[in-house]
Specification:
Number of helices: 0
Shape: globular
Structural class: mainly beta
Largest sheet: 7 strands, mixed
Length: 119
């Protein structure tokens, strides 16, 4: 089993920045990629981006491309989501997710961390 614990959420003004962290523990050898989803009130859950551990290849949703960056600290088994130029529409609960392979869905989920962007 893999455990994911997020941290770093909070309140920020529009145009500001936040960095979320996701610490992975347990059977991290099973992790193929980790990423982020978000869910705003009364909206569907939305994919934000992910990073493949073996290659550090990243991918992002169009809504955050150019503003958000995912990176990884291999020694700490920690993934980061650097969010710049934040907009009120980025307000959501952000979830760290992990998958054990391609096409198998996200097996592992963190508890979520709230991000609020004021206008």
């Amino acid at each position: 089993q893999v455990q994911l614990v997020e941290s770093g959420g909070g309140l920020v003004q529009a145009g500001g920045s936040l960095r979320l962290s996701c610490a992975a523990s347990g059977r991290t050898d099973r992790v193929y990629a980790t990423g982020w989803f978000r869910q705003a009130p009364e909206k569907e859950r939305e994919f934000v981006g992910q990073i493949i551990w073996r290659s550090d290849t990243t991918s992002y949703a169009d809504s955050v491309k150019g503003r958000f960056t995912i990176s990884r600290d291999n020694a700490k088994n920690t993934v980061y989501l650097q969010m710049n130029s934040l907009k009120p529409e980025d307000t959501a609960v952000y979830y760290c997710v992990g998958t054990s392979g391609v096409g198998v869905g996200y097996d592992y989920w963190g508890q979520g961390t709230q991000v609020a962007v004021s206008s």
